[in-house]
Design goal:
single chain, 453 residues, UDP-n-acetylglucosamine1-carboxyvinyl-transferase, Chain, four-stranded mixed beta sheet, binds shikimate-3-phosphate
Length: 453
């Protein structure tokens, strides 16, 4: 899944006078839950059905990897996906490399799956994924008995050999990462005994929720005393329990919704409704932050769907003011800092986002990419240590933003262009298809002026 210069496509986004009134927007399925739907489908007996799956390139790569490990996966004519799994302990050895393209989540979660089985698989990906650190996931998996060979230290491609008897072990969170946690918990599914993961800073909990739904032996207990101050948990999985296929309804992705929320917040007269948005507490730190900035976001019809909280969001144009975003909130909005920074550029005063070191190891170094893109478009910004400070005001625009194979950098700067004095251009919009293939259609319905150049 290479991505050469010839595959790149530039886009530019120009200012619009007013936003839509009464537009109903539907956003594709949540990326995190979509990856996990494929993986849990593979690991259970029977046929799992998935409605509302995100049909982005990242998920298609994970689905292909699941097929190579033994699952039968089809997309029915009605858009529902069927995953017929093999069950925990029964994976096949793949005959060719598992190529995850741009997908960090797919690759890292699948490392946990493979580590807990006596099979060997080669993991690979595009230039972005090949540059991302894998040690954080592989170190605990090696402690459980897996082994790994790299061509270049800690970077893909690598050959991972799992083990027949993954060791029951206890781990404590080193990085606030749901991918690391999930890899360990997935390896635990085939462990003869208990695996414990202590997580003082809570991260997205979709793996735990799905384990419960598919019938795994899992307990999640709130941590007590000083360790529990940030609302974290002790998670225990007892392995070797068969999982049973389920019917899954994937809610709309709050991270993709954030781009459209931002568009409505910055374009005068906008008044839109986004339906069925996942409102899991571990995912909506950016909504809390926008509300603190004075955003007019109304959370309507809160309800449960497939064990997850969802709601409809009414978003209206708002005059935002800068705020300070505490470091403790980072895990619950880790993918939303780039789009928050775009709205901060239109706010009055400065927005201070604290301790963003993890942004440096996403699909790109997002801290630098956001900073450079803002500067290129005449926005005053500073990086101090790992903090990002954005000074709000009018946005000049006129810059070409380097997106570094990063879908979220591409989308957020197209949003920045919606009110800039001169159009904002991005060097490549093709990666948007990894997480939000309908982005340009949705923006079109919004009334945006985005065109290929
Ligand atoms: C994800 C976890 C986060 C997030 C990513 C999706 C997941 O990564 O950035 O987009 O689905 O588990 P980290 O676990 O590395 O923070």
């Amino acid at each position: 899944m290479g991505h050469s210069k010839e595959d790149m496509q530039q886009f530019e986004s120009s200012s619009i006078v007013s936003g839509p009134k009464g537009l109903n927007v539907s956003i594709p399925g949540d990326k995190s839950i979509s990856h996990r739907s494929m993986i849990f489908g593979l690991l259970s007996r029977g046929t799992t059905t998935v409605k509302g799956l995100l049909e982005g390139d990242d998920i298609l790569a994970t689905a292909e990897a699941c097929r190579k490990l033994g699952a039968k996966i089809i997309r029915r004519d009605d858009g529902v996906w069927e995953v017929t799994g093999v069950g925990v302990g029964c994976l096949s050895t793949p005959h060719s490399a598992l190529d995850f393209g741009n997908a960090g989540t797919g690759s890292r979660l699948m490392m946990g799956v493979v580590a807990g089985h006596p099979i060997t698989a080669t993991f690979d990906g595009d230039a972005s994924l090949r540059s991302r650190p894998m040690k954080r996931v592989l170190d605990p998996l090696m402690e459980m008995g897996a082994s790994v060979e790299f061509e270049i230290d800690d970077r893909l491609p690598c050959k991972l050999s799992g083990t027949l008897n993954p060791m029951p072990k206890s781990f404590k969170q080193k990085k606030a990462s749901a991918q690391v946690k999930s890899a360990i918990l997935l390896a635990a599914l085939n462990t003869p005994g208990e695996v414990t993961y202590i997580e003082p800073i809570p991260t997205r909990d979709h793996t735990e929720n799905m384990m419960r739904g598919f019938g795994a032996n899992i307990t999640v207990t709130p941590l007590e005393g000083e360790e529990g101050q940030q609302g974290g948990n002790k998670i225990v999985v007892t392995g070797e329990k068969q999982l049973t296929a389920q019917d899954i309804q994937v809610p709309s992705d709050p991270s993709s919704s954030a781009f459209i929320i931002a568009a409505a917040l910055i374009v005068p007269d906008s008044d839109i409704i986004i339906e069925n948005v996942l409102m899991n507490e571990t995912r909506i730190g950016v909504i809390t932050t926008w509300l603190e900035m004075g955003a007019n976001i109304e959370i309507m019809n809160e309800r449960l769907s497939g064990g997850e909280k969802i709601a409809d969001l009414r978003v209206q144009y708002s005059e935002l003011k800068g705020v300070s975003v505490p470091a403790e909130r980072a895990a619950s909005m880790i993918d939303e800092y780039p789009i928050l920074a775009m709205t901060a550029a239109y706010a009055t005063g400065k927005t201070h986002m604290q301790e963003l070191d993890e942004l440096r190891v996403k699909e790109s170094d997002r801290l630098s990419a956001v900073y450079n893109g803002l500067i290129a478009n005449g926005v005053k910004a500073e990086i101090i240590g790992d903090d990002l400070i954005v000074h709000g005001g009018a946005v000049q625009g006129g810059g070409i933003v380097e997106t570094h194979l990063d879908h979220r950098i591409a989308m957020c700067f197209l949003i920045l262009g919606l009110q800039a004095q001169t159009a904002v251009a991005i060097d490549d919009g093709t990666m948007i298809a990894t997480s939000f293939p309908e982005f340009l259609d949705v923006m079109n319905a919004f009334g945006a002026k985005i065109k290929g150049i």
